[in-house]
């Protein structure tokens, strides 16, 4: 995109400070993240892509919350690995991750046509060559064993995520599930053949709420 996104200095400072707190370089990624945010704000007025309306809130609840998981895809990005973002909505966390992790091959799985159209336009305008949209229900994506990892943000319980999207994982693939409080009940209900490999608390700059990254693998 050729024109700077129209946001005030306070919003830009919140984003840059948050990126620094997450170990990311604002000079490298702030501009495209703001371009994505500008598109989201503009389309949201017509298509109701997200219930969050205030751009300042979107910085924390959408951009920084999505990017809190970036260390968990470092290895994938370094080797050109593949990530399916299930029920991604308007592209969260997949588009922010695609912006900050060049080389990460991201498939954005979303059945809502308006959200899929928005994401295709965002990918085009942002020049995200390694991102694509799969306009489909998760369980209908016919790409068995195609992905190194799947992720989901506020989509469903861990058992349901695996039921819908577990078929997409390679044999040694991982579910990188973004959760609020530690989901002990969901972990206890995992289907046979799956196990928790790790659970890490995550901090989202500007957000006073618990976040956890739960990593699940086949047994």
Any overview of this molecule?
- The protein is α/β, with parallel strands linked by helices and 219 residues long.
- The chain has helices at residues 9-21, 26-47, 55-67, 74-78, 94-100, 113-126, 158-165, 184-188, and strands spanning 82-86, 105-109, 131-134, 147-153, 169-179, 194-202, 211-218.
- Strands 3-2-1-4-5-7-6 form a seven-stranded mixed beta sheet, sandwiched between helices.
- Strand 4 (147-153), helix 7 (158-165) and strand 5 (169-179) form a beta-alpha-beta unit.
- Helix 2 (26-47) packs antiparallel against helix 6.
- The radius of gyration is 16 Å and the shape is globular.
- The mean pLDDT is 95.
In short:
The protein has 219 residues and is an alpha/beta fold. The chain has eight helices and seven strands, in the order H-H-H-H-E-H-E-H-E-E-H-E-H-E-E.
Helix-strand string: HHHHEHEHEEHEHEE
From the alpha-carbon coordinates, what is the Rg to the nearest angstrom?
16 Å
Uncertain regions spanning at least 5 consecutive residues: none
C-alpha geometry: globular
**First-residue to last-residue Cα separation:** 45 Å
Characterize the main sheet.
Answer: 7 strands, mixed
Structural class: alpha/beta
- Helical segment count: 8
Mean pLDDT: 95
Q: Could you tell me the number of beta strands?
A: 7
Q: What level of helicity do the residues show?
A: 25-40%
Q: Report the sheet-strand fraction.
A: 15-25%
Read across the widest sheet, the strand sequence of neighbours is 3-2-1-4-5-7-6
């Amino acid at each position: 995109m050729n024109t700077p996104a129209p946001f005030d200095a306070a919003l830009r400072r919140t984003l840059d400070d948050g990126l620094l707190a997450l170990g990311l370089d604002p000079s490298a990624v702030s501009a495209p993240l703001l371009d994505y945010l500008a598109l989201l704000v503009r389309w949201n007025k017509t298509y109701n892509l997200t219930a969050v309306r205030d751009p300042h809130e979107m910085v924390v609840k959408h951009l920084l919350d999505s990017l809190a998981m970036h260390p968990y895809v470092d290895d994938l990005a370094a080797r050109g690995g593949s990530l399916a973002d299930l029920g991604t909505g308007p592209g969260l966390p997949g588009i922010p991750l695609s912006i900050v992790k060049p080389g990460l091959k991201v498939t954005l799985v979303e059945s809502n046509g308006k959200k899929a159209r928005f994401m295709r336009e965002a990918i085009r305008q942002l020049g995200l060559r390694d991102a694509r949209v799969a306009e489909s229900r998760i369980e209908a994506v016919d790409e068995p064993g195609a992905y190194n990892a799947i992720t989901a943000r506020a989509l469903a319980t861990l058992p349901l995520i695996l039921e819908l999207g577990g078929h997409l994982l390679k044999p040694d693939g991982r579910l990188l599930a973004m959760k609020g409080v530690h989901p002990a009940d969901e972990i206890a209900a995992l289907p046979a053949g799956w196990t928790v490999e790790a659970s890490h608390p995550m901090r989202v700059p500007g957000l006073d709420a618990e976040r956890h990254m739960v990593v699940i693998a086949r047994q």
